[in-house]
Fold each of these.
Amino acid sequence: MNWSWLLPSIKGIPVLMYHKVWPGISDDLTITPEHLAQQWAFLKQQGYTPLSLQEFSAIIDTNTSFPEKSLLITFDDGYLNNYDYVYPLLKEMNWKATFFIIADTLSAPQTNNKTPDTKMSLEQLKTLDPQIVQLGLHGLHHEHFSSLNIDEIEQVMQQSISLFDSSGLTYHKVLAYPYGSRPKDTRINNQMKAFFNEAGIQAAFRIGNQVCKVPTEDKYELRRIDIKGTDSLDAFKIKLTKGKLRPF
């Protein structure tokens, strides 16, 4: 029996985390275009309002009020299938979403070889309307931050920012931790957050599988809800307000 309905709802904003969109594949990281459209049709029918990354950041920074059914839609890794399937759907629905991009992919050449793992090129990223898709940081090479010392973390972030600054892209200094991992050593974790603050990193997302609390206790520990391609619509509805599906 699924007891998830017993979990209390959290006051805040659900931040949905997606990865790949590909026909005929439903797994932990991949959702079909039809399944994605079904989820978003439900969100629209229920009156949810997707926020831009700027709007979300302003709410977190200032603790301002926000529409009751606000949410933030995010996609990790910068897959080309996001360009092919997600971007047209966003334009059709007049919605907004955030794509977190691995910095070293900005130097990769454009390719016509489309697989589920193919990434968007810099040229393709430049064609995205920044009013529809906001870009954020997702590491230099998709590193496990939990395995890095503070010098390595600083180097990763500085090089990532430098690549974005020189790319000509409009982007935001908001990080989605690759793999959702942060340093387990408290000292390194605190040093990292102090560096983030000095470097102008506005916020950072972990996973956590809960609604992102507003007001937040730590803008560098913001929670996202992992949406899997295997989630039924009923499971998606529960995650939207409760987060974890297995509380016990």
Note: The domain at 4-242 is CATH 3.20.20.370 (TIM Barrel).
Amino acid sequence: MAEEQELDLVEIAPQAEPPVCKVIDYKKFLYDQKRRQKEIKANASKVIVKEIRFGPQTDDHDFQFKLNHAKGFLNEGAKVKAYVFFKGRSIVFSEQGEVLLLKFAQELEEFGKVENLPTLEGKRMTMMIGPKKKK
């Protein structure tokens, strides 16, 4: 039948009992498969990470400003990586940085959940906050 129509006999589901075959143009079949794979890849969710930087002595107004940005990022579905950068000898105030990040996490409790608690890596103390799942 395939030769009569000048098309190809393509095995669609070899694991089925009996195997499923179709009489189609094989090149078109491959093209459609690639296009479907590309669509699936395009629709896959991409994790977006937004960074917010603090200093160890960040003022209250700056803190509120950055907090509002973080709320917006979490509402959009992005993760927030908040970090305190210690310059020079300010590493002495690492406790202040940890308190600042914990306060930040507490303020964002209703918008997201803490994925990583504050950890000191070199001159940076970082913390990750992920968005809450929408119901």
Note: Residues 26-43 form the longest helix (18 residues).
Amino acid sequence: MRTSQLIKSTVLLGCLLIGALSAQAQSDFPNKPIKWVVGYSTGGPTDVIARIVSQDVSTSLGQAIVIENRLGANGNIATESVAQAPADGYTLLVNTLALNVNAILAQGRVKYDPVKDFSPITLAVALPQYLIVGYNSRFKTLADLVQKAKSQPEAISYGSSGNGGSAHLAAALLESRTQSKMLHVPFKGNAPAMTEVMAGRVDFMFYPMIGVVEHEVQKQIRILAVTTPKRYVDTPHVPTMAESGFPGFEEYVGPVGFVAPAGTPQVILDKLSSAIRASLTKPSIEQKLRQLGSVVVASTPSEYKQWLKDDYARWNQLIKTADIKDQP
């Protein structure tokens, strides 16, 4: 056999062997622990949701799931680390809206592309918000608040957990829809922002649904609206944003989803998605997640891919229209 033919045969044999090993690895998946990377602190909403789901998924897949909290840069450190991880299904990102929003706000500075660098697995849950005011606030309805905002620029203030977060963006959307100018007051977290709303030093804020009802019962806050498509089961007395004259807010929700590095084999993505979605739809787990103020979605990989694409377009348009910058 000629040398060139021998080389070609060796290369072909190598390719076939690699392909066979790859197919075997995919069919055996998972055969070692899986890491879920969370870009936020232990005990936060994203972390708690990930841990609730991981316990059941670990059982169904027969492998341990390790939660790794990689803090910093509003989730960027975690996101960038997963973008650079092997595309084998053993390292996933538990993503939030920061996946898209950070890429828009810090375009050219983040070290990932939200579309090119990730393979969607599932949108696990959505995190709607309540629009709240202090219990003694002069604003009894959203219409009252909006009327004041439109008549007097920056007379109305709103709190948030920080620049570019879900509360900030929701209020910016309200500004845009009402063609008003309000005063953004960012805090280091939702809790201190709510404290100022309770005290009446900040007029309102959008707040994740977890724990809000307890504050309403204690007459510390009042809920003017909710961003769910229909009235939420726990607060049937609270109108939706759409009922209050502002349809579309239900689309601007904070997601908690799962994505893998780009190039992860589809068979692995499908297996992961099926396991996570099966867990999410179990009544016991769905109940726990509802208590955290989240609404189960459990989308397929293709559904989540389209959702992320639409979500990027939504935030991109809002951020440009509202002229939101990376820093306050």
Note: The chain has a mean pLDDT of 92.
